Structures are given as C-alpha cells and as structure tokens.
C-alpha cells in the first residue's frame, strides 16, 4: 500500500493550477502502454505537442500586434507585408447604405493607421460612413444587415462532437477489438463444428455484449459532453453597455455589430476592434494580445482599440469598427481554442491507479491463460495421447477470450473518466446553485480548502446600498427620504446643498440614464448608486447647476487610491476640484470645513477629532463611510492638475449595506468543516469589525488589522501574526495577494479567495481557488478566477466546498468499489484456472461485470449528491493518501468475504447445494455468476458510505443510483433467464435466486463488522475556530 502511494506521489502528482509541462509529461510517460483505449481515456487530456504548436501560432500573432503597437510607422506591414491595398467599395455594401469597405475599416484599427483614419474624416467621418449617430447609436432593426455586411462578433470554434464520434472512440478499445476478432473466429469455428444456429451463440454473445458496452459507454460520454457544452455557453454569457435606439442598454458581446457605441470602464475586456470617441484617463492593458506588459494610454491622438485588451483605468466610449474573425483577437481565440484544458490532479492520480491495477491485471490475465493452456495441453499429452478433436481450437480460443476479458475487467479505464463524470455532474448542479465553475480542477480542489479569504462588500453583505446617515455642517442626521430633505433644506443654506449636489453628480463614475420606459436608471457601483439616489431626492428642489458643468479631468476610483477626483469648469466660469473616497484619506486632504452658511472655515484639531469620532461612530454601526470635499481653483493655481491637498470638507456619509441572510450560518458551517474564514476588505476597520462580528468571523481571540500595519511587519513577525488574523481592513489588492501567498507557501494551507476588481486578479491567480463575483465582478477578475459566484453570495462558496468534497469522496467510493470487484474477479478466475482447469466466469459474463463496475458503477457512485455530514469533518490535506487506510480495510474485508464464498461454491458447490442433476455444472456456474453479481450489487450499496454504518440514508434522494441498481438487477434477470445461449447461463429456481440475494446481502452485515475495525482515517492538520474539535468518524458516527 505504501509502495503504491509512493509510486503515485512520485509519478502522478500535478499542481491543481498551472501544472508544469515536466509534471504533465512525466505522468503521461509513467502510464506507458497499459491503456486499452487512448482515444477515450485521454479525451479530456490536452495534447502537449499540439499545445506547443498553438503557442507558436499565438506568439506569431502577438508579434504582429507588437509591430502595430510599438512600431507604428510600419504598422500596415504586419498585415500587407509592405504592399498597399487599394480597397474598392463592394456593390452589396453600397446598396446597404454604407460607404466603407469592411476590410478597409478593419485594417484601420488593426493597423493603427492614423493616415487612413484622417483620410476618412477621423472618428466622426467613420461614423458617417457606417451610418451611425454617436449620440443615438445604431437602430436595433439594423443588426441583421450590419452582421451580413461587416460580420458577426464570434470566432471560429471546434465543431461539437456528435454521438457517433463517441461510439467511434469507444470502438477503439484494443481489448474489445481483440474480443471482436475472437468472437468472429469463434463463430466461424462454431459453425464448422456445431452447425447453425448453435455454433454462433458464443461468438454472437460476445458481440452483443461488446455492442451493449459500447452503446452504454458512448451514451454516458455523450451526455457528459452535452453538460460541458452547456457550461461553456454559460461561460460565454458576457454583457457590455452600449447605446442603441437612443438609450443605454446591456447586450451580449456576441451581438455587437460594426457601428455600435460601446461604454467601457475599469475591468472590462474590449469586445471588438474600435475607435475612441471620448473618455477620461483611459489606460489599456494589451498584454493578453501583444504579450507586452506596458500599459497603453488611449486618447483622441491615439484612438485605436483592439479586441481582447483590458481596461486598466478610466472610462470611455468606443465606436466598433470590426468584429469576430476580422480582429486579431478572433484569430488568436481560434488558435487558443485548440489548446485544451489542463487535466485535474484527481484525473492524473486515477490514471496512476489504473496503471498499477492494469499491470497487475495484465500479469494475472497472462498467468491465467498460461495455466489454462498448460492444463489443457497436459491433459492432451498424458491422458488422451495428444489426440485432437474438432472443438479443441474453440476451447483454446475461449481461453484466450477469457484472458483478454480479464484484462478488460482488470484495466480500470473508467477510473480517470469517473472523475470527469463526477465533475461534470457537480458543475451542472453548482450552476443551479449559482456557481459557475470555469476550471475543472477548482471543483475538486475546493474540497480540500481550509481557508477562505473573502471580501466584505457584496459577498458577506447584500451590496444593495442606501444612505443611512449624513454628517454635514457639524450635525449628524439619519436619512429618511423626503423628510430629511425638507429638514436639510430648512436648516442649511442652498449654497451648501448646491456644492454637495455638484460633488455627488459631477464626481461620479456612474450615470443617470433614461430607460425604455422613460424612467431614470442609475448605472454604476452600489456605493455611487446610493449617493446618486440621495442626490435625486433633491431634484427640482435645489438649483445645483450641475447640468451646466464641464469635466476637465477625471481620476477614477480604484482600490489602491481609494478615492475619486474630478476637475470641473463651472457654469459661472470658475474651476473647482471635487474629491470623494475613504473617510480618513479625504479628511487628511482637507484643511477647511463648510459651515451652514456655505463659508469655508479652518479645520481645527478639535474639528478633526469630532469628525473622526463621527466616522468611527458610523463605522461601529456597520456603516460604510465616505467623505466628500471640494476646492476652488484660483487663477494663479495650476488648472490642469487635480490638487492633492487644500480641500474643504462638505459631508460624511454613512452608507448601509446589510449582511446577507444565511451568511452567519454559512460561516458556522465553515468553522465546523475546519475551514477558517478571513475577511479582507478595503473598508474602515470599525465597519469591518462590526460586520465580521455579525457574521461570526471575528472571535474574542481573533485579530483585526489594517493593511498598512500588515505591510510594515517583518517576515518573522508575520509568521506569528497571520494565523491570528481574522479581519484585514483598509487593505490594498497587494495585501490580499501577500496574505494568500504566505498562507499557501509558509503555512501550506489550501486557500480560496474572493475578488471582484481588476486589481484582485493577482490574488485570484495565486490562490488555489479564485472566486470572482458574477454581479459586481469585472471581466478581468472573472477571467482570472476559477469559479464565478453568479449571485455574489458567500453561501454559494460553501456550496462549492460541499460539492468539492462530494467529488473527492464519490471518487474514493467508486475506487473502493472497483478495486474490490477487480481483486475478486482476478483471484477467482486465476485460482479456478490453477485448481480446476476452467474459469467460472465466461467472456460474456466478465464483460457484463465490467460494465457493472465501470460505466454503471461510475454513474451510481460518482454522482451521489453531497450531504450535510461532509461539512462536519476536516478537509483533506495536500499530501493525504488518496486510497486511505479506511478504503483498504473495506476492500480487503469485502474481497475476503467474496473470495471465501465464491471459493466454496467453485470447489465444493455441488455438495453444499446438493446438485444431482445432469446439468449441475451449468447450474452451479450460473449460480456462481449470479451470486458474484449480487455481491457487487450489495457492495455498491455498501460503498455509499466508507465509515458510517447506515449506508441506506438518503439512498432514494439519488435517483441515478436507484435507476442503475434497478437496471442492473433487471438485466441480470434477463441474462440468466432468457439469454442463456449467449451468456452460457441456465434458468435458476426461485430458491437459488433467493440464495444468491441472501449471500450478496450478507456483505452488508460484513461491512458493518469491518467498520468496527479501528483505523486512523485522517492524517491532516487543520486550524479551528471557536474551540471546534473534529467530529469522531467511524461506526460511532452513525
């Protein structure tokens, strides 16, 4: 057992994320030739040689794009190799009402061709040529004609595999091919020796069984492929903001057409090639397209945008000029779609298990054939004088077929594929529970997670924010809609409210737009939405004059600066700067506050202390705090740069974001499961602590720390500090990345981390499992994540952990079941061949047994849904043995029972059962076969629980398990009672049927007894909270 685990760890270990090519090639080499069907077994495994070819193509495309980006004088050369193309306007384009050739339009952005753009009248000229108003957008009824002329925004993908391709894959099984040849020879020889129709029964029986195996296998594989296809469709549901028909709306990126006006903001991936119309501080990361990490500023001077690049900072509007395969991104994606997804650690490990068992099975099959042939030849030479009969060739062929069939049974081809089956089933179920798994390995890795670093806003809280309190002009008020508005209007001068509303509406990354129904819709982050909703309460009551303001410069909010600033030209002609953001940061920028008359008065130490007390009091009530400030820019000051100091504080807002229902219970579930939950947030520490206590994350002995303090610690201090950290507030994305890295590398924890912003991408990439938020998350964060939480709910993360554990345990159950069948089938046939000179199980019977333990067994056990008990045990550690001592105990115990029972029946069955009929041999062999099958049926039930005695709990909640068991029993009755000519069976009396069932069912009693044999089930260290102790396992955990 230890040697087996050592072999697996040495040759079949790969990292769950970004495995090295050396590790991938090592396990492929270790598998060797012991593979029955490479096409099927390695269908979900990427071809590394093909991947190298794909990588070379990718680098070639990136090199072309680098030329366009960084050698703009020669930009067109990477398309035309120096030759200038004279584009003509096709007749169909002219008739459609457009005035520019699609290829010429595509070449302008793709080639960074400023000269061509200028010749066409710039962005506005291009807009006229593609018949679009930059303010109104395209009309929805023009979509079809634009797609016909300029193409659709989709790239070429590999066509989906049909059912018959899976049948073709299944037929490539070498052992089945050999058996088909044997069946053909058997039929020919049988017809020659026994005539029609008796001579065809043996061969036809094997053919029919092979046909059944191939069909069942193909149906199972095809259904898996359909599930993965559905998941791929979900992954591609990406939406973007556009202006169409005169109003803002969300559309799928695959519905974009040339002429669309697209709105881009931080974290978006540019969905098509286009031209910059307008925007602020627009910074593009082109590394995914060009391979260069240097960000590119896009402006009116450099207006070109390429599909596939990411918005790193700022916001902008873009005119789409080319889509789909006319973009370099389309060509790149066509190439990348051929690369395939990396194999998962469990798939690799089970390939190792299959290799070991396959080698053992091959040895047993060879020995069985040699023993059977040796005994046959011995009888010929010493008892019959080497006299040959007509059916002797058929006997030898039958021996060979049995040996080949032993290989079919012994090489557990279904083990690695069972992982895929279980993962596809889990991923489909998780979709229903609002978790989209992007990478297969994440689902199984999450089962081992012992730490979750979670965001606060939107994950633990609802992300539905409203202004709850406001401090303005040295007075704090609770906000109660129009009632508070009336109160503020009567106690504070209109000048103060006007400045406040200007700051709210002008210093915002969100927008108030008109919907189809004419009503106001706020597009933007929940925090800004709360402020804009507050501002809209004053609409019509105060003349804030914010509509007449003009933005000169914008510094958008990001998680590093934790503030947003804007420079505004006022209708009166003056220039003003507005700032908002994290309370203490904005307060440090201020040296004045505004009084109730609208005058700026110096900010004294006493004022500052009072304001900090207000901020802390808001934060202690679990309110998110924001400060708003302004600064008038005088003529002698630099009016091009946004100032960093000298502001006047306007107000402090306390924004309420309630804790999600069920979060506290989900956190307690994590604690019971040995998973430590840490909150990492950019919010005020008091707000974070209040929310963490409400969720049950922060305990009496836990530590809450701020990001700057965390960063200041030495490596030695961090070793002592990190295990105690439960809350990290005012953190930067780099703090989250540092925490995740140290937890993984120093403390060897399996870390899950959540993120929603562009700057969270490094932490999501570094973590064992990265969770991106489906609602609040940016496209960049989602692409870096392994799982997308569609409802942004912490409870959904727990569901992934539960299903991850379920996948791991289900595969262990299946391995335990399959190894038991393997051991018994190999030993019974080999021992019988050695002692009696015949094999009790024929080729057809062994093929049926193989289907029970392989495809049907995987369906029954690998799809068992999770139960609540799974979250009452510690997670499996990184270096845990896959085949545990508990599994070995169960395998050995059940194998011994079955071998003893079947051995007694084989060697002394006639006497024990008092068979005296002429066909007693046929009846005994049928009874042995029937008993063997029922032992497997009841052992399949036993395998549902490896440690608990009650194996029937929840059995009817898994309809697949019940259906597989029912169909197995039904088909066993058909084989024994009606297909005897093909399966070498005879009908049995009801007494013998009952006895077969009783002998099989005794294995359930044996399982109970075995489970009282003590073994150490776990060898894993986990960190617990709240004095949690691991629950006992074994029979006492009934």
What does this structure look like?
It is built from 38 helices and 26 strands. By secondary structure, it is of the alpha+beta class. The strands form four sheets. Strands 10, 11, 14, 15, 16, 17, 18, 19 and 20 form a nine-stranded mixed sheet that branches. It has an eight-stranded mixed sheet with strand order 8-26-25-24-9-21-23-22, sandwiched between helices. Strands 1, 2, 3, 4, 5, 6 and 7 form a seven-stranded antiparallel sheet that branches. A hairpin with a 5-residue loop joins strand 17 and strand 18. Helix 13 packs parallel to helix 33 and helix 34 packs antiparallel against helix 38 (990-1010).
Helix and strand topology:
Blueprint: H1 2-11, H2 21-31, H3 38-41, H4 48-70, H5 77-80, H6 91-95, H7 102-110, H8 114-119, H9 122-129, H10 143-150, H11 163-170, H12 174-194, H13 201-235, E1 239-244, E2 247-252, E3 261-265, E4 273-285, H14 287-290, E5 296-297, E6 304-305, E7 310-322, H15 328-336, H16 345-382, H17 392-410, H18 414-432, E8 435-437, H19 440-446, E9 451-454, E10 466-472, E11 475-478, H20 482-491, H21 494-506, E12 511-514, E13 520-523, H22 526-536, E14 550-555, E15 563-569, E16 575-582, H23 583-589, E17 590-594, E18 600-602, H24 605-620, E19 623-633, E20 647-656, H25 663-672, E21 676-680, H26 685-695, E22 703-706, H27 707-712, H28 715-721, E23 725-729, H29 733-745, E24 751-755, H30 761-766, E25 769-773, H31 779-784, E26 787-789, H32 794-835, H33 843-861, H34 885-913, H35 920-942, H36 959-978, H37 980-983, H38 990-1010
Parallel strand pairs: 9-21, 9-24, 17-20, 21-23, 22-23, 24-25, 25-26
Antiparallel strand pairs: 1-2, 1-3, 3-7, 4-5, 4-6, 4-7, 8-26, 10-11, 10-20, 12-13, 14-15, 15-16, 16-19, 17-18, 19-20
Helix pairs in contact: 1-16, 4-15, 11-13, 12-13, 12-17, 13-18, 13-33, 16-17, 16-18, 16-32, 17-33, 18-32, 18-33, 19-32, 24-26, 32-33, 32-34, 33-35, 33-36, 34-35, 34-38, 35-36, 35-38
